[in-house]
Amino acid sequence: MEAPRHDTRGIVDPGTLLHRVRFRRHEPAEPLRRYVEWYWLIDWDLRTPYASHVVPHPCVNLTFQWDEDDGPPYAEVTGVALGLYTRKLTGRGRVCGAKFRPGGFRPYTSRTPVSRWTGRALPAREVFPRVTDATAHAVTTPADDRDRVAALDAFLLSLPCAPDPQADHAVDLVDRIRSDRTVRHVGDFARAQGMSVRALQRLFAAHVGVSPKWVVLRYRIHEALERAGTRTDIDWAALAAELGYADQAHLVRDFRATVGVPPTAYTAYTAYTAYTAETAYTAETAYTAETAYTAETAETEPAGSGAPDRGVRS
């Protein structure tokens, strides 16, 4: 198993998020790594509320959360979120999360298909009865990351985890989709694995929680979001072809449906806020930033310098 990645793939406006909060990733104990990808820890101390936005990965998260102004620590299980996930942060608080690998949650709930949790966030004890208030306190209250990680390890190692070759297969298949940009069509992918499309769909419903087509599309959007947030010289038609879209319009449609704005507006927003006062992401601020960025770069950037192409907002 690979170590935690250091990219911000899936996070909307990661620069502002990392300015507002302390964000870290840690490896779980070695026996957990087959099914748990990493732990992620966030601490914040904010004078004004801030909403973080994530285009979720096709995975389940177990989180221990403490909004210090609102009550004691608590725990949640969050299934695969189908749309943009938003979490409002206020005052002081922290989240300690375990991100299961796509396909890796089923061994901990062997009698329940992962699709049961899709689109849901529910108290963790409804899934893991041994979660108690003391568990949430033990994970969230230590000041040192090592103690939080040790508490997460201790809890997850205490859970029954049934060996499941089908879960192993699902983990490997999703990882191939994520890492291989040539995977574009579910039918071709199923044949390459020696499976029927229907068998692949059943495996994903039971162990991933969403369809293989959804996973392919989600990783396309992750790639487009990463490009849109780090570059301004993007050839959107070429990127659409690279990601397997029929044309540029289909990429723009999917990006807007997921993130809330077309990719050019998001690109302009991240470029504009890179050298202006910090502005938290919303659809409204993205469009406002696009207008301001267009006006300012028209005066300061020479032709062909990499300003976003405004002709694709359709």
Description:
There is one protein chain. Helix content is 41%, strand content 17%. The protein is of the alpha+beta class and 314 residues long. The strands form two sheets. It has a six-stranded antiparallel β-sheet. Strands 1-4-7 form a three-stranded antiparallel β-sheet. Helix 8 packs across helix 9. The two termini are 41 Å apart. The C terminus is likely disordered.
Q: Give the C-alpha Rg.
A: 21 Å
How many H/I helices? 11
Termini separation comes to 41 Å
User: What is the N-to-C order of secondary-structure elements (H for helix, E for strand)?
Assistant: EHEEEEEEEEHHHHHHHHHH
Global shape: globular
Q: What is the helix fraction of residues, given as a range? A: 40-55%
Q: How many strands in all?
A: 9
Largest beta-sheet characterization: 6 strands, antiparallel
